[in-house]
Description:
CATH class of chain A: Mainly Alpha
Helix content of chain A: 55-70%
Oligomer: heterodimer
Amino acid sequence: xxxxxxxxxxxxxxxxxxxxxxxxxxxxxxxxxxxxxxxxxxxxxxxxxxxxxxxxxxxxxxxxxxxxxxxxxxxxxxxxx
Amino acid sequence: xxxxxxxxxxxxxxxxxxxxxxxxxxxxxxxxxxxxxxxxxxxxxxxxxxxxxxxxxxxxxxxxxxxxxxxxxxxxxxxxxxxxxxxxxxxxxxxxxxxxxxxxxxxxxxxxxxxxxxxxxxxxxxxxxxxxxxxxxxxxxxxxxxxxxxxxxxxxxxxxxxxxxxxxxxxxxxxxxxxxxxxxxxxxxxxxxxxxxxxxxxxxxxxxxxxxxxxxxxxxxxxxxxxxxxxxxxxxxxxxxxxxxxxxxxxxxxxxxxxxxxxxxxxxxxxxxxxxxxxxxxxxxxxxxxxxxxxxxxxxxxxxxxxxxxxxxxxxxxxxxxxxxxxxxxxxxxxxxxxxxxxxxxxxxxxxxxxxxxxxxxxxxxxxxxxxxxxxxxxxxxxxxxxxxxxxxxxxxxxxxxxxxxxxxxxxxxxxxxxxxxxxxxxxxxxxxxxxxxxxxxxxxxxxxxxxxxxxx
Lengths: 81, 457
């Protein structure tokens, strides 16, 4: 499964678990408007480390947090290389 | 200073029935021989009035030396088997150690201590023993803290107060998963010695199955350990070989799952859990098979012990409380004599339940979580043997909780069980306490104290 698909699947899964309504997922979706709150994102990052073997936010020196879903996916695609 | 009320340990042994022993894997020591024997090669007299560090590798050798040293040494500092060598210098200075008892496996030579006395499992009959007339101070090390352990001073009278009045039952054969160099194990050691009843100890590095087989061989009736010890024992096929009349848990939170598990494994046995700590001593025992303790215990004086709950933690005032810390100005008790051990409780209906340790709190985006509370929920799953909840650093909330889970049998569909556990957690816990990820692991690390090894995430 591609990184992008894995991320989208996990977001949907966590939204279900947390009883949140997820916005339609697209590259330019602003993460803060996605329907997941900060705990949801914390869980997402932990789950993705489990699935993808990388936590690009803790691993990298620069603490830039992505704004859109497209940015978020890119961070993982870079981190995976 | 003359000892008035509490005769020394060795003096209690003289009227012990024969054929009662302390056992480990390779040796046994008979109480009646101990009454006149010495494991210190004739050097006990040299230790009179000294501040002695007991640093043997063998638990049984420590047991023999304790019987000899009580009433003879001014102070006995008991080194637990997992003590970290980098703390030795601080401990030796703090307790003003001027003699050490070692054996062949001791972790250090302790060359900086003026008097080194070797101990062995060979008992020599002593023609003349030094008078056991000093009220020796017993010093135990605290566990579970980072940095130099605190040294906690007790008297023999305080250590034995919870059972001194009970008449000894000669049909009892004790076994302990705890090491006797920790508070929980020392209680059982003293109880066995004072009652003149046999005790089965573990040996260093002995697999739990071997220890259980030896318990079966000796017909053990009373067994004590932490919930973690018991969870591991229940994983051993040898558990079916023992049929104790009494099992007891302490040292960690006894959740409902382990209490039910023990009741199922030993339907004929009394199962009780006790609250005790190195500093507070034994506070109470609960035998109704339910986790937590009746709320009515708080505020009343039971068996000389008073309890109160302040700022969410349980405080104990009791004659069994340790007297002070050695080598430190820290106060052991508050102005009214209550000891706060950092054990957090919460009232639910007519019971108090333990929610965790004050220092073990995980902070998730400002919300506080006790890992033990989540473990108790996970442990309810019928396929789960034990679990460890720990923090994982999160760039977003500071931390999230993740769980490592040991299953009862390897044949389970791990993914399905993980899903079940998450559902269980989501039904029972607020969102932030639900583990972000669950890993099925073959085993969990257990510290020498018998408690789950918790690390800072």
